[in-house]
Amino acid sequence: MSASSSRGGGGGDREAPPPPSSSRMRGAGDGGAGGVWPEHFVEAVATRIATDSAASSGRLSAATALANLFQVCTTWRNVSRSELLWRDLARRIWGRDVLRCATWHEEYILCHRTARNFYARRAVYTPLQVVDAADGDADAAALACRCLAISDNHLACGFLDGSVRVFGFHPTRHVSTFYPHEPRDRLGRFSQSVSGAALVGPNKLVFASMDGDVHVAVIDEPSTPARRAHIGNVVEDGPMLSFSGSDRYWVGLYAGVPGRALHVWDGVTEALTYIGGSLTDLDSVAGWHALNDPNESVGRVRVSARGPRHYACACTRRAVEVYDLEEPGVVVHGEEARRGGTWWVDAMDVWVERVLTVDGRGLARVRRVVGMVEVRRFVVRGGGGVGMEQRVVGCMNGGYVVTCAGGAVRVWDAERGVVLYGFRERVGEVVCAAADDGHVAVCSAETGLHLWSF
């Protein structure tokens, strides 16, 4: 395994967007016209200024706005020591609910620094080996990557043979490989291939196969085999096309049997709580074909989680639907592709409370999950001719969109809708991609697995 630094060049060396022209408060002083302001009031002002700055000029500008605010006076500067303030800002601006550092102030600084690195393309590139000594003479085709899942500490890669390989980030290395609980009768050549995986908490892996089996594994116990939490029934439900999950819910998207598109599990009790939905009813034939053609891209589902509410966003070539997982039978938003158009299923992703979709014209839209209110739209590739047939793979994190088409991997500013840079490394045609605020991972059938750490 080798690693090299990938920095600078192109648009990668530019500075962060400037802060608002005036975020300095006047007339407050230690007493001001109205006397000393209570600490909780100053915290509220700081939160408002930071979030307004992030909304108008990007998340990186919030730090400058806060620095100007804390220079007003000694009393206001003392508020900068409030852990409650930094915890609230880390959640509001960076979507962080889990503490990785010693304090929330340090957590905010880490998030800001990582985002600056992401903006400026300061990353360490590492090609990852997916075949280890235990694989022996494994069939390369069987180790074709089907899905990626990423978290603060791990990268999980699901393969055509039903296995999931997990890599750790500190340092970057292969940690463990998990296989389905036990072989059983299969329907279709690729029915055991991995449909999706979720990294839950610091140490838990949940993954599902196309035949509907769901497995749970503990990452730091590689000697303990994965246990089967749910036995699938592909004849009754159809193939599972996609799988996603959080600590609260797991969701599978199926096609093949009408009225059974969505399956929802309680992530705590592991009980199946809902079966229903008609999103994939028109894709039943394509769903059955997927059992013998792993390149058949029919549908995708992702779970959005922030605070107490969880949503499932599901996409086929014909439509996009959003479900409130507290009431999974209710479609809170539905949208069909324009007449004669399609969605790019592999260019649909969710990050916290935002969803990325790309249609057949190459138009990318970043929207809020609730209400599907549009935040930004931009064209990720030119239309017409051969370009219209290029497969688009996409993913996103809190502030950036990553698109892969025609062998090129590009990073876009999701707030402004402009391309920032493309990675120099040649990766070939990408089949799947995943990103969080500190990493981008892509897998290519030609060149294997690639990781950029920011």
Please, could you describe this protein's structure?
- The chain is α+β, with helices and mostly antiparallel strands and 454 residues long.
- The protein is 16% helix and 36% strand.
- The chain contains seven helices and 29 strands.
- It has helices spanning 39-57, 61-69, 74-78, 83-94, 104-120, 234-237, 284-289; strands at 4-6, 123-128, 145-150, 154-159, 164-169, 172-178, 194-200, 204-209, 214-218, 227-230, 240-245, 249-254, 262-266, 272-276, 299-306, 309-316, 319-324, 331-336, 349-351, 354-358, 363-368, 374-379, 393-396, 400-405, 408-413, 418-422, 430-435, 439-444, 448-453.
- The strands form seven sheets. The protein has a five-stranded antiparallel beta sheet, with no helix packed on it. A four-stranded antiparallel beta sheet has the order 3-4-5-6, with no helix packed on it.
- A hairpin with a 4-residue loop joins strand 20 and strand 21 (363-368).
- Helix 1 (39-57) runs antiparallel to helix 2 (61-69) and helix 1 (39-57) packs parallel to helix 4.
- The protein is globular.
- Residues 1-35 and 382-388 have low confidence and may be disordered.
Give the key terms.
16% helix, globular, disordered N terminus, alpha+beta, 29 strands, 454 residues, single chain, WD40_repeat_dom_sf, 7 helices, four-stranded antiparallel beta sheet, five-stranded antiparallel beta sheet
Short description:
The chain is an alpha+beta fold and 454 residues long. 16% of the residues lie in helices and 36% in strands.
